[in-house]
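Q: Sequence in, structure out?
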Amino acid sequence: MTIEDYYQMLELSRRKVAQTELTFSRFLLAGVDWRDRLIQISGARGTGKTTMILQHIKADFRSNPDSALYASLDNLWFETHSLLELVDYHIKNGGTHVFLDEVQYLKDWQLVIKNLYDNYPGLHIVYTGSSLLKIDYKSGDLSRRRISYSLPGLSFREYLRFENIAEFEPVELPVLLREHREIALECATGKNILKHFRDYLRFGYYPFYKEVYAGYGQRLSEITNQVLESDYPAVENISFSTVRKIKKMLYILAQSCPQTPNMVRLYEQLETDRNQGLKMLYVLDRANLINLLSNEKASLKNMARPDKIYCDNTNIMYSLCESINVGTERETFFLNQIRSAGLDAKYPEKGDFLVDGRYLFEVGGKDKKFDQIRDIPDSFLAVDDTESGWNNRIPLWMFGMLY
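A: Exactly. Output:
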């Protein structure tokens, strides 16, 4: 590697940063403590991880922009060049920070990053990767060194800001449950909120929708294929036939959500056994393509049979499903926003969702009754097709204000 090679990558980094807009940023940009020396940012494809780190470089390295180097590790440049040498050149030329994108495509990535961290005490490293990333403790333990963050897709609150419709601060769940009428009055008045909510359910979860309005569904399908055909093989030693089977599993599950399918029949359709089938199921969950819901008594052993299986979010649901059940759509949105906000959700004996081990929810239309959860403390209805609620009846769209 030569100094010219280094300047080639530095120039590419400069161009990427210069082309980055600062008009809208994800909530996590302000939530990361960028002072830490080793930061991991994971999440599903298309949620804005790359844009976020480029925005950080553009905003916070104005006085010395070349001290920060951005590099995407899926760049073919790394087929014939060494990341270790690139970073060494960067430090010798006054660099202090490196931002490494798509780290799953770097062979022995954990060991390489550990060596960078240990060998250059003044170096700050930020790396992003697929939600499929796993830490292998035999290949350089980063757990004691790194600070980890996860970036979900846009919340409904962020979508409203992204569309320049309205700007609101996130609301914690206990506050939302207690003050939803006042919050709805502030957020919904004069905003045609239900129309925007319906749009969000179809195309508002992934920020790239503004780049491909008409082709959004096709782009989502392409991302799904990339996750399973490229990201998954990058983190697991799997065969092409396994990739085909897991893609088939995803489409079969999408058509039956949210009910748990007959697993024996599913394994027969995939021509696989129970152990391999369960492994594929949980890969889809880790990849943020499906959402598995189990009851409170679930353990690592019996979680093999989740009580319900959902698409991860409603946008994925629209791209995969031939027909959309409105009840499933509502539950998918609720579960996605609850978990994206960092809250725990389980499948209860009564009702639809038990959140943080305390709050019980039924999800439905505006005429939904309390019949199933009547007289149970801390029970609520999340109801669609209404701008405001009363007592323990809370508009469904408001659960998109949590993050």
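The chain has two domains: 3-150, 157-401.
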